[in-house]
Amino acid sequence: MDQRYGKWTHGIFEKLGIPGPKPYTYWGTVGRYHSVYYEDDIECANKYGKIWGSYEFRKPVLAVMDPDMVKAIIVKECFTYFTNRRNADLLQHMINSQTASEAKKEKQNKGLTDHEIVSQATLFMFAGYETSALTLVALAYSLARNPEVMKRLQEEIDSTFPKKSTLCTATPSCGPSPRSSDPTENRTKRFSKQNKQSINPYTYLPFGLGPRNCIGMRFALVLIKLAIVEVLQNYSFSVWRSL
């Protein structure tokens, strides 16, 4: 029983046809990590391709290194994948804006009365439920008449990742590649205004991108620039002979 619990989630990526290192009971793939964490991502990218699956103990982690897919995940469809930042429902907005007393009505911002809230809620009940029910009935009938289409739909539903899975954009693996213009070479003008337009922004993500990027990006860059200027005004760097 303990063994079954320890590897219960370890078959998810195999069922979905996603390659990745073999997990161990309870430990997943944690035991194979290098001392330098991103080296493991680079090794997996070279062995399994742009997408692979690993396990942090029992938790499945999908790693993505394709720049176009990274763009779709963190920018274009961010709130499709990350659904914990939704606004409150419409009814809650109506309740929050309700005018509870005559004193509040004297304010410049007009709220909704009890009658307005009840009227709108009733409208949603009658206008929404009947049309949705009829659509579902028609859809169910159409699927029943076309079982091959229903089977394809069921396969697509079953191919989704389970709840609480982790999605990881393997940024170290996105960067060091032949398509990224020799990332290990020190090119001082790599990110100049003239050359920046030719670089795919999703191959180098030190602060992330999209709605969930680092909010301290500008502050960090200014701090780094000020610090290095202050040091270089008085000192110079050199490499120790043994390195």
From TrEMBL:
InterPro entries the record matches: Cyt_P450, Cyt_P450_CS, Cyt_P450_sf, Cytochrome_P450_3A
Compositionally biased intervals (Polar residues): 170-181
Domain of life: Eukaryota
Region annotation (Disordered) ranges: 170-195
GO molecular function, one term: heme binding
Keyword tags: Heme, Iron, Metal-binding, Monooxygenase, Oxidoreductase
Function description: Cytochromes P450 are a group of heme-thiolate monooxygenases. They oxidize a variety of structurally unrelated compounds, including steroids, fatty acids, and xenobiotics.
Similarity field: Belongs to the cytochrome P450 family.
Name of the featured protein: Cytochrome P450
Organism from which the protein derives: Champsocephalus gunnari
Taxonomic classification: Eukaryota, Metazoa, Chordata, Craniata, Vertebrata
